[in-house]
């Protein structure tokens, strides 16, 4: 870093080299620093991703543990016999419905496939299955959409960082 910050002419004079060689040296050093920073950021992003996976797994395992709760909720859903409730029940598993009902931020508890299912579901059918009003179900779908978009951006960023770091490794 110090060698990069030193003016090119001063460093050339000190090392008894031409300024063009010193400029190439400084550019190379800057590339090394940039690559190290990108690698550090990639590792940090990967660590965040792994932590998110662990958190998601632990949350999902906690949702899966109480088997009596989904039965009770299923009874609540089954008491109304409209066709919209049936379609919501068949499209979304009891576990997903339990997570949507019980968790304060359910979009963080669901995997990406479940988020997609929630988004595909009709807002009225979702509201009916959860025993909520249509506006609250719509807000839930919007939150799920935002979370899914955020996850997709993170994956794209990871791929971009990976391809950038692969490209830099081929440099001399």
From TrEMBL:
This is DFFA factor. Gene3D superfamilies: C-terminal domain of DFF45/ICAD (DFF-C domain). Residues 63-89 are annotated as: Disordered. It comes from Leiothrix lutea (Red-billed leiothrix). Residues 79-89 have a biased composition (Low complexity). Residues 2-118 form the DNA fragmentation factor 45kDa middle domain. Residues 63-75 have a biased composition (Basic and acidic residues). Residues 8-42 form a coiled coil. Keywords: Coiled coil. The gene is Dffa. Transmembrane segments: none annotated.
């Amino acid at each position: 870093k110090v060698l990069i910050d030193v003016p090119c002419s001063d460093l050339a004079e000190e090392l008894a080299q031409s300024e063009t060689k010193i400029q190439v040296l400084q550019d190379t050093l800057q590339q090394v620093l940039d690559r190290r920073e990108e690698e550090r950021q990639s590792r940090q992003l990967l660590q965040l991703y792994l932590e998110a996976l662990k958190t998601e797994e632990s949350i999902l395992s906690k949702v899966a543990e109480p088997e009596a709760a989904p039965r009770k909720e299923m009874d609540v859903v089954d008491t109304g016999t409209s066709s919209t409730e049936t379609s919501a029940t068949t499209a979304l598993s009891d576990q997903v419905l339990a997570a949507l009902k019980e968790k304060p931020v359910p979009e963080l508890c669901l995997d990406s496939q479940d988020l997609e299912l929630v988004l595909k579901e009709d807002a009225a059918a979702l509201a009916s299955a959860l025993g909520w009003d249509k506006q609250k179900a719509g807000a839930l779908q919007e939150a799920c959409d935002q979370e899914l978009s955020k996850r997709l951006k993170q994956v794209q960023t990871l791929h971009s960082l990976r391809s950038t770091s692969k490209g830099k490794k081929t440099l001399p």
